[in-house]
Amino acid sequence: MRVALVHMRHARSGGTERTLDQLASALAASGHEPVIVCRSHVDPPDPRVRFEVLRPFAIGGAWRMWSWATAVERFLARRRGGFDLVVGLGKTWSQDVMRLGGGVQRTYIELVHRSRGDGRRRPPSLDLKQRVACAIEDRALRPGAADTWICNSEMVRRDVLRRFALEKNAVVVVHNGVDLERFHPRRRSAEGAALRRALALEPRHVVVLFLGTGYGRKGLRRTIDAFACASRSHPDARLVVVGFDAALERYRALAAGRGIAERCHFLGGRADAEACYAASDLYVLPTLYDPFANSTLEALASGLPVVTSDTNGAAELMTPGREGEVSSRGEDDEALAERLARWLDRERIEVARPHARALAEEHSHTRAMRETLDVLGKAAARPR
């Protein structure tokens, strides 16, 4: 098949961008001809992958989003006979198969956009960019707009079927996968130990890792509050915060205000996520909304139990009490602190480690790509 993979940005970073790379590589390795339709790109993941670059004029995020979707529609109208299948991975409405890696826009608005996640409130009116994103989503998820819609969690699939009048069998789930070699417990003895030494973390310290870009959505305020409470009975606990956020200093001040500044390490953005997991004992992510947080599987693959929220689609893979804990939406900070405190116990962590790794091994990125190619093959076989 000649397959068009449509996404505005092709890059090495970002969850959807990594999926785009993996899917293009998997298609090429299976003998297909993948063409990435994008606005910008880096080097191809495979020499057999080609690019089609569209750069419609636009000023501002909202205009750029709409002009891109329109440009894709026009491009495909001109070249429609040139592709056996069109797969959309972003905000477009012209595709045979749509992958909803970012979940449902209106759910994001309700759970995240109207609340920053740091105690402050956004204005109740939606900005132009959000309205444009919803307009594109409405066109992309109307009946007949595509043959198949792929969700990365059952949480998102239920949400899609609740909000849009789509046939149930047209909306399928393919869970995200993880690189089982990059994220592996064996890294604890080298990269993990080196990072612990650099941070002056001793063997007695139980290290809690928070990793994510966008501290508000990912739940760092709740993490700091819960850790401040839980660490009173676990003085050897330490919190390591990794990821980009313009408000880093405000969160550093929050930790100081909670009296735990000396127990917290704010590392900012880093490219060695595997070393950060390897240096840690427990992963915490009380996210407001994540269709499927890849970091959940990365932590599990690294042998870390996970404490996360049920608004993280990846939580549906876990058995609470076995590989970690799952907090309920609306649960207060005190309840989260109690869950965290239970998992600051070294013996509990050690028991959970092999279970965490075993769960991750069921969800490799190879398996995710195999399941995705199967969905694409079935969609291509149906008349359109």
Automatic annotation (TrEMBL):
Pfam families: Glyco_transf_4 (PF13439), Glycos_transf_1 (PF00534). Residues 196-347 form the Glycosyl transferase family domain. One of its GO terms (molecular function) is glycosyltransferase activity. Keywords: Transferase. Residues 14-182 form the Glycosyltransferase subfamily 4-like N-terminal domain. This is Glycosyltransferase family 4 protein.
